[in-house]
Design brief:
With 332 residues, the protein is α/β, with parallel strands linked by helices. It contains 12 helices and 12 strands. The radius of gyration is 25 Å and the shape is elongated. It starts with a helix and ends with a strand.
Length: 332
Amino acid sequence: MNRGLGLRALVLSFALGSAILGIDLLGAEEPGQKVVRVGVINQTSSSTAPVGYSAFWQRLRELGYVERENLVVEARWADNQLDRLPALTTELLVHNVDVLAAWGTPAAIAAKKATTTVPIVAVGVGDPIGAGLVTNLARPSGNVTGVSWGYSDIAGKWLELLKETVPRLSVIAVIANPDNPVNRGLSRDLEAMAPARHFKLRVIEVRNQEALDRAFQEAQHGAQAVLVLPDLTISADRQRLTALATRHRLPAVYPARSLVDAGGLMSYAPDFDVANRRAADYVDKILRGAKPTDLPVEQPTQYQLVVNLKTAKALGITIPESILQRADEVIR
């Protein structure tokens, strides 16, 4: 047998066998089959994931990313222990993630402090400029971009909803986490708005779930309504939070419709599913080569007013027709 022909036959046989097994002899990857690594840092727990979190992953699947095929997810959860965020973020970076998605302001701040090179998509940050994440929404510098919830734009709406709902309203208790920079900024903004609307605010600080009972007991003495500011620690146990408001017979406005689903009276908030899907689009753009500086920080474009008439009945109050007509959804 010709030795040259035998060698060529052996190479051809090995190549055919490799093709059957899916081995690329040249080391080239099929289009769309590059494996990417997405890091996720979140201040809550996996059992109390932020509203809209599933919409983020659904959108990534629509864009062609499938875990255990071309996507590796490295996720870390702080279980509402904010002091764990820096170490968890550093741990994530050891895995050489291509992009880091950070949910909530404390997680985004921890991510920015941990790296200046890995692209960061901040999700659900109330005030990206105030938190020091970017200096300009339209042209973010550095390695951070994302999707903001834009709460400062709708804070006045929360006050107006309570004013319309509660007759002779004079005092509103504001449940706020002083460790959350968004809550600190919103508290200042709300206190500046209150005099023109002819009522006072009492800011009650809540740093953990254990403080909620005391906060509502304090609110019950002197306040006629409650405004709960957006904070993942405060709203971690949605049923417990809304049940406390009902037990103390305090009409409350919340910053997420999931809290109304859990028994809260009403909410006015961004459409979190839409916003989280946009965050997934940003992750996709970065994985395809875009830089954070190419992607303006997005503000919400769709908001939802949701009212729970079952809770109104339990509280013994009547929701004005003016609110019901504006509501995107009424739970009866």
